[in-house]
Amino acid sequence: MADPGQHGGNVLETALKLGIDANSLTDFSANINPLGMPARLREALAAQLALAERYPDPLYRRLHQRLARHHGCPESWILAGNGATELIFDLACLLRQKTVLLLTPGFAEYRRALQWMECRIVDYPLAEQDDFRPDHRLLSALRPGIHALFLCTPNNPTGQLIEPDLLLAIARRCKEQNILLVIDEAFMDFIPDAVGMIPELGHWPNIFVLRSLTKFYAIPGLRLGYLVSGNSQGMQQLRSRRPPWTINAFAALAGEMVLDDREYQQRTRQWLREEQSYLQAGLQSLPEIKIWRPAANYIFLRCLRQGFDLQTALLDYRLLIRSCGNYPGLTADYYRLAVRGHEENRRLLDAMTRIFSHG
Length: 359
Ligand SMILES: Cc1ncc(COP(=O)(O)O)c(C=O)c1O
Description:
With 359 residues, the protein is α/β, with parallel strands linked by helices. It has helices at residues 11-18, 39-47, 61-71, 83-94, 108-116, 137-141, 164-176, 232-241, 249-257, 262-284, 310-315, 342-357; strands at 26-27, 78-81, 99-104, 120-125, 148-152, 180-184, 207-212, 225-228, 289-291, 298-303, 319-320, 322-323, 334-338.
C-alpha cells in the first residue's frame, strides 16, 4: 500500500526536506477554506474544553440528528466519521476482496483503502482530451464482475463535476448491475446552490454519498465527515463494525453547530466567487499554463514548459503547491492549487509571472 504522506497539506515534510521553518510556507497544496473555522465554533471550543474530560456519546445522537435534519433524511441514513477518510476505509471493509472500478486520476485514499481490503482494482482512465470528465462510455465499463464504483464530484484533483444526467444514468446502470456506487461529494458545499445526490437517495439504495466538513469549515485537524445512504443493511453493517468514540467531542460539537452558520457560509461563497475568478484569470494569462475550469476551491493545471518543476520553483518563494505527479493517470506536469485569500493569491500569481519571465 502507498504511504499516507502522499497528500497536499504536508507542509512539515516539505519544510523538513528544505531545512526551513514550516511557518514560513504558504500552503496552496491543501484545499482548506482560508477564512479559518467559524468564529462561533472557535469560541464554543474554547468555552467547552471540559468536553475532553468525558466520553462522547458513542452513538453521536445529537450529531446524527443535526446532519439528518440538514439533509431532510432519516437519522438512520447518516453515519458520521473521523473525516470522510475514515468512512472510505469503513466502506472498503464492506468490499473485501471484491472488484472495484476507480476513475483515474482520483483521490488516493480509495485505492489505499481498497488495497488494504485486498480488492481487485480496475482503472478507468479519464482523458485529457475529454477534460478529464467521464461520459456515457463509462456505462459500458459497469458490467458483471464489477462490485463497486467510486466517483468523486467535483473530482479531486481535476475539479470537474459529473453532469447530473450522466450521474443518473450511472446510478441506474449500477442498480441494474447490482453495483454499489460511492459518490464522494467532499467539496460539494463550495458550489453555490448545488445539492448533490443526497435528495435523490430514496430511489437509490445502492448509493453511498460521502461528505466532509473539514474543507469548507476549515477543520482538517478536528476531522469530521459523514456518509449518507438509504441502504439500511449496508449502513447497519457499517455501524456495527465501528470502534466506539472515533469522533472526538470537539469535532462532534463542530458538526452540531456549523451547519446553522449562514453568515459564514455566505462569506465563504463570496470569497470563493471573487478569488476563484481572480486566480483563474491570472493563471489564464500565463501562456505556460493550461488550467481547467474549477468547480470548487481548487484549480487543476498543467505546466506546458517541458520538464519544468513548478513546485520546486515556487518553493523559492515559500509557496507550496500540490504536484500531481503521483496520481495514477497524471505526470509531473500537472499541479493542483487551492484558492486562498486575495493577498496570498496575488503573491502566487506574481511569483509565477516572475518564474516564467525568466525564459
Ligand atoms: C475527494 C476527497 N474526499 C475525501 C477527503 C477526505 O476528507 P476528510 O478530511 O474529511 O477525511 C478528501 C481530502 O482531501 C478529498 O479530497
